[in-house]
Every structure is written in structure tokens, then in C-alpha cells.
Amino acid sequence: MLRAKTAVLVSGGGTNLQALLDAQNSGIIKSAEITLVISNNAGAYALTRAEKAGVKSMCISKKELKTQEAFEDAIINALEENGIDLIVLAGFMSILSERFTSRYDHRILNIHPSLIPSFCGQGYYGLKVHEAALKKGVKVTGATVHFVNEIPDGGEIIAQKAVYVEDGDTPETLQKRVMEQAEWIILPQSVEKIAEQIIK
Ligand code: GRF
Question: What pTM does this model have?
């Protein structure tokens, strides 16, 4: 295998997807090739980013498929049809069951916008994570890349990067700093690291 075929699962804006595409262009990612983008939301701007980069993309909607099982089966089919080796959850706002995660043991990465084990697990997603960090009054937060298992945000940690909280931060300003100073850096680095191990 020359490069690990990688699928990125998204739900929203897709700035982390963009960081991965940029890292592929700049050579930071050389052991992985992003060949598929799957969104569970047809309106996700991430789908436009994929299209602009010439990467195959599709929407798989849980609402339309009704059950978790049918939703996950549709994702599995897409991954298998496209010969995917590595899966990256980049702002994917849907929990995957053990049936799914155990099938791809140590092959699914997620980016979480805090230093796990702080502000993580069920209910901690998007701005809620940063709201909780500000409410607690922590002075340092950051981002974590980890493997995905059946426990939300509970899999083995691959990389973390700390970011300072500043006086006057709002959840939005903190989210932006965590993305710029941590997420967009450690996610591409982690994808390269794991893809390199897969292709060996
Ligand atoms: C990021 O903060 C990521 O850590 C979290 O969801 C957000 C997604 O942002 N899991 P984007 O869609 O990559 O812009």
C-alpha cells in the first residue's frame, strides 16, 4: 500500500477537513490520501470544501435511514466500496455504536476540542465544550486527537496540544483559538502518524 485511503466524516463547516486537505497539498500528510468525505448533513459546508478539492463526497442521512443500524450500514458500505483504510471524524456530530467502532479498531480518529479527560464525553460537543471550560475557569485548555472506541471520547490518546484561555474570552473566541493553535495542527500530524503505521 502506497498511501492509506482515508475517509473524513463531517457534519458542519469542515475547517478540520480543510486543514487535512491543505496538509495533503503541503506535504505534511504524505502517507494518507483523502479519497472520500461523508456528511450526515446535506447542508454541511464541508461538502462544498470536498467538491472544491475534487474529493468524492456523499451525504448519508440518519433521518432518512431512520435507524442507527441502517445509518451505520450505509456508512460501512460506502467505506468498503471505496476501500477505505483509515477513518477521521472531523466535527462529525453523530455517535457511532460499538458495532461500528469495533469493526474499525484503531482505524478511527477523532478530534475533540479540550484536553481529555476534561470536558469530554456525552453532551460535550461544539461550543458546549468551551462554555464548560470557561465556566470552570480553567486557564489552559486545548485539543485532543484520539482513537474512537465504544466510549464517547474514551479511546486511546494520540496527540494533545495546550492553548491558553485569555481574559475576556467567550466560547466563540476560545473555540477559534483552540482550532487555530491546536486542532488544525495536531489533526493532520496525527493522520500522518497513524497512516504511516498502517502502510508499513
Ligand atoms: C471542532 O471544534 C471539532 O473539534 C469538533 O467539532 C468542531 C468541528 O469544526 N469535534 P469543523 O467542522 O471542522 O470546522
Answer: 0.97
Largest interatomic CA distance in the chain: 49
> Is 112 a known active-site residue?
yes
Mutation to probe ligand 1, out of 179, 184, 186 (largest number of atoms < 8 A from CB): 179
Q: What one-character-per-residue DSSP string does 119-170 give? A: S-STT--THHHHHHHHHHT-SEEEEEEEE--SSTT-SPEEEEEEEE--TT--
Ligand 1 contact, 90 CB (< 6 A): yes
Task: Provide the pLDDT for residue 141.
Answer: 98
In this predicted structure, what is the pLDDT of residue 169? 98
| 157: phi then psi, degrees, rounded to nearest 5 | -80, 135
In short, whether 14's Cβ falls inside 6 Å of ligand 1 is yes
